[in-house]
Amino acid sequence: MRLPLACALLATVACAHLRGGSRDDLDAQIAAYCKALHWKDFDAAGALVVPEHRTRWRQRRDAARDEQDLSIDECEERQARLSPAGDSAVALVRLRWTRLPDPVEKGGVVEQHWRYRNGVWLLLDDAGAPLAPPRPAGR
């Protein structure tokens, strides 16, 4: 009688441990990333990028003079899809920005790829955005 109970408890704990991230947590990370971009808090935004891309992401911000020349006027999640395992997600985000010296506002919907690692959602790729992290090799 105790063996089935122990197996059920072990299976519950194992499933909870292997479960991926939640949609609410993903939405919160996307909102935090958008807020950081809007306020030009590139340190906070960079902390939401996967660790293997952070240094290069920051170097690109500095090289492009984003703190001086880039203004994000709108950043809003339109939709997000989680993988069945909950370890990755694709989000569509509406962005509008201006990059000096060009006074013309640009914008569109960009596709963000997120990964759930060590209990937190992190940005892997931001295709089409004005400050996309480097794409992994082979993509």
List its traits.
139 residues; 5 helices; 40% helix; Nuclear Transport Factor 2, Chain: A; single chain; alpha+beta; disordered N terminus; disordered C terminus; 32% strand; 4 strands; 4-stranded antiparallel sheet
Please tell me about this protein's structure.
The chain is an alpha+beta fold and 139 residues long. It has a single domain (21-127), classed as Nuclear Transport Factor 2, Chain: A (Roll). It is 40% helix and 32% strand. It has helices spanning 2-18, 23-38, 42-46, 51-63, 66-69, and strands at 70-82, 88-99, 106-117, 120-127. Strand 1 (70-82) and strand 2 form a beta hairpin. The longest helix is centred in the N-terminal third of the chain and has 17 residues, at 2-18.
Topology, element by element:
Elements: H1 2-18, H2 23-38, H3 42-46, H4 51-63, H5 66-69, E1 70-82, E2 88-99, E3 106-117, E4 120-127
Antiparallel strand pairs: 1-2, 2-3, 3-4
